[in-house]
Every structure is written in structure tokens, then in C-alpha cells.
Amino acid sequence: EVQLVESGGGLVQPGGSLRLSCAASGFRFGGFAMSWVRQAPGKGLEWISRISDDGAMTIYADSVKGRFTISRDNDKKTLYLQMTDLQPEDTAVYYCHGIRTTTAYWGQGTQVTVSS
Question: Which residues face 8 on adjacent strands?
């Protein structure tokens, strides 16, 4: 069974940091490019970052560039998102997403709330 399980979300004050994790199982994690996607309350999905299957290449949305860092550990089959200087507009459900050619997998999401 394919699974992507996110963790690490929670409530944080503005300016704070969180590290999200996404544990993969049931497929060849190292063969998939991985992304983080978020959905703020009442809004659509927003892609925020992507990492290549070998971790060599990363790209970010302008909204998070310089504050968020995506990484992966293929031996541990885990994707990470280090988030710093969090702001209220970062409040959302954060999903990990894996894709390889026509195959795509989604996690169930983890809630991040930034509030004082």
C-alpha cells in the first residue's frame, strides 16, 4: 500500500519555525520527484517547493523563497520542509506530493497555523 504520511505541523507564533516531515512507503521513493503543496483556508492549492528524485535540484515559489528549505533522505524515504520566519499567511494544510511520469501520490496533509 502506497502511503505518504506528513507530520510536524502545529501552532506557531509569527516569526517562528517548524519542520515538516513526510514519510513514504509502498513505492520506490528515490525514483520520484517530490513537492510540498499547501491549501490555505478558503483557497485553492498552492505549490510551494519541489525537489528532484536525487535531491540535486530544488525550486521554490516566490512566496516562500528564502524562508523554506526542502530536502529529502532517500535512505529513510522521507521528505522534509524546514520553515522559518513563518507568517500568518503561511497558515494552511501542507501536503506532500510525489510524481514520476504519469504516477502521482498525495499525503493526507498536516495543519500549520501561524498566530499570536
Answer: none
Q: How many CB atoms lie within 10 A of CB 1?
A: 5
- Report H helices in 45-107: none
What number is the average pLDDT over the span 51-56? 97
Residue pLDDT, tens place only, 20-37: 999 999 999 999 999 999
pLDDT (tens digit per residue) in 82-96: 999 999 999 999 999
Place of cell 533522505: 73
Residues 69 and 23: their CA atoms lie apart, in Å, by 17
Q: What Å distances lie between residue 59 and 42, 44, 63, 71, 76, CA to CA? A: 26, 20, 12, 11, 22
